[in-house]
Amino acid sequence: xxxxxxxxxxxxxxxxxxxxxxxxxxxxxxxxxxxxxxxxxxxxxxxxxxxxxxxxxxxxxxxxxxxxxxxxxxxxxxxxxxxxxxxxxxxxxxxxx
Length: 97
Ligand SMILES: [Zn+2]
What we know:
Elements: H1 3-37, H2 41-61, E1 73-74, E2 77-78
Antiparallel strand pairs: 1-2
This protein binds zinc ion.
């Protein structure tokens, strides 16, 4: 198992949680920028929504390096708090032991 595979899973989790925590400050910044540039907020929300959707999809679909199935998605759906693979129980920190 390559070390970079679990690092990629950790990165996907950090990215998704980071975007979630940054959503409100980013929305405020976009609102301010739209006021300054006299641009409708709608035009700034399109790329922002695209980035958020892409990151959410990447998070949901990132594969487990051991079983090859989706790391955060199991029988019960997507688990954003998971620190183990939802299919084979591989720890997200297995390569650090
Ligand atoms: Zn797995």
